[in-house]
User: Fold these one by one.
Assistant:
Number 1:
Amino acid sequence: MKPLYDLAVIGAGPAGVAGALTASFAGLDVVLIDAAPRPGGQYFRHLPQGFNAQAPGALHHGLDGFTRQWETLRARADVLLGHKVWAVERAEGTVTVRCLEGDREERPRTVTARGLLIATGAHDRPLPFPGWDLPGVLTAGGAQALLKGNLVVAGRKVVVAGTGPFLLPVAAGLAEAGADVRGVYEANGRLGLARHPLLAAGKAGEALGYGASLARHRVPYRGRHAVIAAHGEGALTHVTVARLDSAWRPVSTRTVECDTLAYGYGFVPQLELPVQLGCATRADADGSPVVTVDGGLRTSVPGVYAAGESTGVGGAVLAEVEGRIAGRSAAADLGRRVPPLPRLSRRRDRLAAFAKALLEAYPVRPGWQGWLRDDTLVCRCEEVPLSAVREAQDLGAIDARSVKLLARPGMGWCQGRMCGYAVACLAGEDPAAPRRPIAQPIRLGDLAAPTRSPLEG
Amino acid sequence: MPDVVVIGAGVVGAACAYYAARAGLDVVVVDRGPVAGGTTGAGEGNVLVSDKEPGPELDLALLSNGLWRELAELDGFEFEAKGGLVVAETGEVLEALTGLAGKQGVEHTVVPSGGLGDYEPHLAGGFAGGVFYPQDAQVQPMLAAATLIRRGADRFGRGTLMLRTGVTVAGFLRDGDRIGGVTTDHGDILAGAVVNAAGTWGGEVAAMAGVHVPVLPRRGFILVTEPFDEPLIRHKVYTAAYVTNVASDSEGLETSAVVEGTPSGPVLIGASRERVGFDRTVSVPVLERLARQAVELFPALADRRAIRAYCGFRPYCPDHLPVIGEDPRAPGLHHACGHEGAGIGLAPATGHLIAQTLAGHRPDLDLTPFRPDRFEERR
């Protein structure tokens, strides 16, 4: 551990690892920090041990390359896994990263660096619907965790629903692991994938791999369909699947038996750290706030860079490219000799254009709000039903923040990470960049104590 | 044409509107944002009499305290008459504290060191004693403000009290020398009088009318813990240092945490006081100090997690008194702003007094100490 690094990188996913490695090769002293005990981020972390051997090539797409990068990085830079960052500050050209090390017995740690690369990725974007709080209903990311092997997947009757290309690897992964996947229900048209320039982005192989896997397991994949209600006494037993019109209003419904529902409506970039630093944000193609960056992935705050999903949801390949560009920028800004590499920027532009096309092909349509009943919980932490949101609006709440202040959605443990998108939609606005001065829960005793650097232990 | 336009749908504007409607006036409340979206939505909900020096602000607080108890009859928000416990670190401080309590003439009980545990079983040991103020109370400020407007409309008629959110005032209409309404981004609103209840932004509103009212922001951070199953803290608890900080002129950071439980479970710790303009950048040292003081008061809090922090901007005037009353420099314009960290507590009395002046009655309290032009001589 060093008292002052050249660059701190937060996030050990594809963007963070590539960025850290690139910066290290360019001569910077780098430290990489991640909350999880294993590297990989959302994309690689959840692949179970021994899964690679059986899975079709597409499923561990890029894992070998990532593993090689990780091993190289570990030999060249300091790596702090299991470190949750709860605050970042910047003063006089130095960034201070405040972390909590460990799980139950947390210890405060402080890392300081001259530059900061934020590669914190994104989390699932669920929508509320009647029954979404039943045991057995999982986010798509939660289903990936299920695949990790903690729970028996084989024999489970699973429905996969939501929107976006991410549903395919989830369904294929579940089917490969022995689950009985009853159907994949894509709320947008399933032609979205074929229509868009997958070939141009070199993703055809990946998409075909998932398609072949689903076909082999005889999994039906339906467009313009959604799960609009989940049912069961104490646990999930069946779901209501609706055929949708173009605004996602149900046209007809039927019942599908299942004990597990994995669903997701895209991703929410994690922005609390850049917002703490005052980085400028913008609305992405789907309305989500993302960090504004220049061609070198520099944010509006000097010495602070962002790469991966925090600059716009675009997947692992784009994230890695952005990480490399950001690592080069950080090195160049600290006076290292970094030859220009226009090829990399062109690659990023191409991938980003594809990501934008995907966001536009898989939007969230307003009709989902009609699936809700008065008693449907919008916020599960604080148990806020739709009717309470409507009452708050009736009292004069005209935006998501005032709905939150009057009815308490987003006030609980997850701080609106689960319900923030839905509440913003219900309030009739795009979600705002999250203002969370405390990015992770921290014991008051730890907050009160003077924080120690890793050196002091 | 309404009799009154109230600028600002925070708790002070809501109270002005409620009492004006009750007095038989037709009222329109406009706010550029939602109801209670400014400082009201970033406060703790303190209704305190314990922290005021004897004088006009304490008179206002006592009048308000009684009015809050009446307003609590309106269904829609909870008035928690929990009482406040002020603790003293040393015998010397305790002496000063009991001296202040005697001068205030407010209902109170002096609590010896050994008696503190009866009030707060989890309080740290070692305090010299304290003073308990049974009138100190708590409201959820956003719900209280929204409820005043809603119930006012229900009781006195929707034509009588109307809320228009998302309407930004751009200037004033004049009828000769008199203020005769406002211009907004949604058209003009003619009215017999205008109430400036724009809180921290009250100085900007006054400037649109060509008058100087020095209202400045003082930033306050509040820490919120995870919810507790069993209430750990029964009252509002704070150290005597709070009283000196409230009246302080210091530019720098001051913290003296008020710690209390809430009906929904979390413990609130706040607030700090800093003069840094409208800067929302997170200040970790401020959060650390709040946490330290809370743990010093209640050691059991050390193992509980803070899950959230928020900040707001308390509107303060150089003499730490609010501005209440009609502006002789702009007849027809009434100010009700600059309540610093006490806006929730002082709102009903402010609304009541403004309604009295609007209706041409003699106000229950002398408004001279709060007059809007009192800063002229210092300029």
Number 2:
Amino acid sequence: MKRVVSVSLGTSRRDHRASIQILGEDVEVERVGMDGDLERARLAIQTLDGQVDAIGLGGIDRYLVADQTRYEIRDARRLAEAASRTPVVDGSGLKDTWERWIVEDWIANGVLLPTMSVLMVSALDRFGMAETFYRHGFSVLAGDLIFGSHINYPIESLAELIELGKKLLPEMVKLPFSQLYPTGDLQITAPDDRYYEYFLDADVIAGDFHFIRRHAPTRLEQKVIVTNTTTALDREEFMSRGVRQIITTTPVIAGRTFGTNVMEAALVAVTGILPEEEAWPDIVRKARRQLSREQK
Amino acid sequence: MNVLPVLEEFAAQCNQNERLRKMNRDWSRLIELVATDRNVTYWLRSEQGLITAGMGDVDEADLKISASEDILQEVFSGAVTPTEPYNAGDLLVKGHQDDLMRLDIITLLIWGE
């Protein structure tokens, strides 16, 4: 059996372990939260190097994307470089393929309609999903500045998202990651009610689950949520708040939706193919087909 | 050397930029800037989307930035980003992290790629 471990900067309260089957092979996946401690995460990756088949980077992105350009977060690169034998992946290879296709599937089946307004709580960490919404004609507000930096400025077009990304990301990726994104227990702090208006105005709320959970109002009548990294309890809670549908970008396995980094690590472990390789999109397609069949 | 003309130009650039005026419309802050090598104090004030600059002591600043006059000049003229001297420990900041991040973003939007 292949074994992958997701080393997450998030809280250890969400740690779990499960077995999944992917492309006909059993994979044991484990998530270990480092409670925001970068050095502990680096040491954990160093220890796992050569001991497991792939390592996922959770609670941190290695790459942020604006259009065709990837910007590497300095702290994430340090973490990835702690392993020299085992591949370390952050989920960006799935975000750029699988997450685009998921949105297209739900548009094709009529649940997501281009007449709907979309709040993407953060788009530069999910550029593929954001671009898909924009390209299909949805009215999209990207909340990267609002939820990431508490600057009340919604980004209203793909062109502006790309322009801001190209201006800001080359320097922002050099900042300590804790300044860019909540880590550890900061992910489960008290709700922040400053930006409820954006949630109330949107039909679809998409993107990072921690941002959604922290900033969304109590009632979310008839909203469609597109996210991942949720537990059964998270989904129950959101449904009880009036949500019409929760679309998770990774499939529900053993009651939870794993982070894209976990699924990507599992795929890399099974196939030995890395997201940078030409064969990657085909591998992702095959895995999707198999997992979709199992979900039906 | 006097940093005030640089700060005034920085304020003018912010005020001419429609996007920055919109971003800062609800950001009311008084920022104290101390040139540590010359013991001179400057200030920037943000109110209703507009930035003003001046020289002299201030009471109860929301954000206090300390650096040598050279570094203050470089940061507020766009020669370097605040991140570089901050990461190197040459620019000290006391205040809320969100305010520092906003200053970073303002300078990048004026002078970024």
